[in-house]
Amino acid sequence: MTIESLNFDSMIIPYRAKLKAYAMGFTNDEENANDLMQDTLLKAFTYFAKFKPETNFRAWLFTIMRNTFINDYRRNARTQKVMSTTEEISSSQLLHSASKNQGEQKFINADIEKALTSLPANLYDPFMRYFEGYKYHEIAEEFDMPIGTVKTRIHYARMHLKKYLKVYEELKCKIN
Fold it and tell me: The RNA polymerase sigma factor 70 region 4 type domain covers which part of the protein (predicted)?
């Protein structure tokens, strides 16, 4: 052991329990907290020569832990995103999923249709044009109104539909 490693070890001892608690706050899992703590201490030891003695050692350690957690979280999120988009789905899974969702989709489509027909004409027409892919200025020209009015009416139509279809948002939250 070098003098530097002995010095590092002696400086770490008072903060081990607090670092562990901090790691548990991030991970809510003993094993992941231990991994985070190990990664943090490894990085801290690696960069110990760059630590400035006049600064706060505790804050330095906790910042390393926070940044390590954030970086690992981002890396894992990217990995999971790639895995979920590249996973192969068997045709039997697709068929099962499609047949299961067909009944639900009929109800959802019927509710969307009701929500759309409940819109007043002055909101329905601009919204449908926008939904069909028309630009704001094209809609404004067609209905001979200012672009601001078109944007406002589309906004109100969205709010109306969102309110009408709120039950699906609540259902989605309960499922997730």
Answer: 112-161
Residue with tokens 């944007």, as numbered in its chain: 151
Taken in order of first residue, the domains within the chain and their CATH numbers are: 3-86 (1.10.1740.10), 91-175 (1.10.10.10)
Considering Cα of 7, then 8, then 9, then 14, what sign does the dihedral take? Answer: positive
- Tokens 């919204």 map to which residue? 127
In this structure, what are the phi and psi dihedrals at residue 72, rounded to the nearest 5 degrees? -65, -40
Rounded Cα–Cα distance for residues 120 and 167 (Å) = 21
- Separation between Cα atoms, residue 16 and residue 57, nearest integer Å: 13
Per-residue pLDDT of the chain (176 residues; tens, 9 = 90+): 566 666 777 888 888 999 999 889 888 888 988 999 999 989 988 888 888 888 888 988 988 888 888 888 777 766 665 545 445 555 555 555 555 556 667 777 778 888 888 899 899 999 888 888 888 999 999 999 999 999 999 999 999 988 888 877 766 555 54
39 neighbors 26 (Cβ within 8 angstroms): no
